């Protein structure tokens, strides 16, 4: 898929869901809900990348790994690889109390939430606002 060969259609189902995560993040950014902020940030990044894959006619894989999803493009996305890997660590299969920490190290901090939000919005902006 070449960078200039597609634009994000507003009826793209992946875009619609990504937009909901984007709006949720904006509503809760200044809160202490760090876990929720991290979760929606990861979801935003994952869904907007999948929206771009969908637009480009690439089969959308069933994975939550941001780094892998980004590797499917034949162009570079301007985001730090460490931030992509960080976003990938946020996703967990279960969101029940035993897994409540969300990050491999446990409870996310405000700094973690800000990092996740900034990285996810950077990816979103690359695909939607260019």
Account of the protein in words:
The structure is a single chain. The chain has 130 residues and is mainly α. The protein has helices at residues 13-28, 34-55, 66-71, 81-90, 110-128. α1 packs antiparallel against α2 (34-55), α2 (34-55) runs parallel beside α5 (110-128) and α4 (81-90) crosses α5. The longest helix has 22 residues, at 34-55. It is globular, with a radius of gyration of 14 Å. It starts with 12 loop residues before the first helix and ends with a helix. 31% of the residues are buried. The model is unreliable at 1-5 (pLDDT under 50).
Question: Summary?
Answer:
The chain has 130 residues and is an all-alpha fold. It has five helices and no strands. Mean pLDDT is 87; it is low at 1-5.
Defining traits:
130 residues, mainly alpha, 5 helices, globular, disordered N terminus
Radius of gyration, taken over Cα atoms and rounded to an integer in Å: 14 Å
Number of strands: 0
List low-pLDDT spans: 1-5
User: Count of helices?
Assistant: 5
Kindly report the average pLDDT value: 87
Percent of residues in beta strands?
under 5%
Secondary structure class reads mainly alpha
